[in-house]
Amino acid sequence: MADKTIVKNLDSNALEIRLKLLKLCEQTLIHIGGDLSVTDVMTVIWQYAMNYDVKNPAWEDRDRFILSKGHASAVTSFNQAMRGCFSYEEIYREYCTDNGRFGMHSCNLLNPFVDVSTGSLGHGLPVATGLAMGLRLKKNHKSRVFTVMGDGELNEGTMWEAVATANQYKLGNLVGFVDNNHMSFDGTNKEVMDMGNLTDKFRLYGWHAIEVNGHDINDLVDTVNQLPAPDSLTPSVIIANTIKGNGVDFMADSPAWHAGKIDEETRQKAEEQLVAAFKRKWGDS
Ligand SMILES: Cc1ncc(C[n+]2csc(CCOP(=O)(O)OP(=O)(O)O)c2C)c(N)n1
């Protein structure tokens, strides 16, 4: 059981990030469905798990992060702002502007806190695998490479070649999360391309695979606490069962909200739901 104060703080961080996402979604179109589904996972990675010094992104022994489902860039940027990489205001000001550091996909051309640009699905895990292999070659046994994939994304690119490679080269410094919201761009994964049970599949490829409720911060923290050490020999994946558009009733589980923009009244309604759910769980304190 994770420490209750830590869990409450992380839950409060996740609420704050969801509210920031809704504000951005009023300003412009974002990938709100997949941002809301992965918010708890991303909050635990960025506010709890990552060994990272914002003042020194070039630090050799830090953990690396690759957003394989690159369209969840907004939730990454807000997490990085919460960690102190830049301010929230900078995100709102520069989002999707010419020469802005923030946009619909994660881009490292102008933003040094993004390790690898992503957005074309199916390539983040393979790059993370190469990075993990490179760290081993450099005798770096302290850093982990975290990557967040979409379950729909696992239909694409060279994801499964990377899964086999990570097992072959015993990359225990590689930690994947799958945002398992059962949805792709315009329908359910069952309709688009059914990959079956992902936990079983990763295990067949030799990975240490754990399935958790991806909206339960306590479970996520517990799982992170029990990860094998970075110098171990088995890659890990956390299959986080989530709901696309989580927390907002009219967005939840709806392919219509893969991406979208909302008006002020809609934002207020959504905010009320999120705040009420937090209070039901934690009270007013
Ligand atoms: C190579 C490639 N093919 C297609 C797309 C278009 N696309 C963007 S998001 C998406 C759905 C992916 O599903 P998933 O990874 O589960 O994302 P989530 O539902 O969590 O937002 C698709 C097909 C893309 N960005 N890149």
What oligomeric arrangement do these chains adopt? single chain
* Second CATH tier, the architecture: 3-Layer(aba) Sandwich
Radius of gyration: 18 Å
Strand order of the largest sheet: 1-2-3-5-4
Q: Beta fraction of the residues? A: 5-15%
Q: What ligands does this structure carry? A: thiamine diphosphate
Number of strands: 5
Instruction: Sketch the major β-sheet.
Output: 5 strands, parallel
Overall 3D geometry? globular
**Count the helices. How many?**
10
Which spans have pLDDT < 50 for at least 5 consecutive residues?
none
Mind explaining what this structure looks like?
Helices cover 43% and strands 10% of the residues. The chain is of the alpha/beta class and 285 residues long. It has one domain: Rossmann fold (3-Layer(aba) Sandwich). Strands 1-2-3-5-4 form a 5-stranded parallel beta sheet, sandwiched between helices. Helix 6 (159-168) links the parallel strand 2 and strand 3 (174-180). The chain is globular. The structure holds thiamine diphosphate.
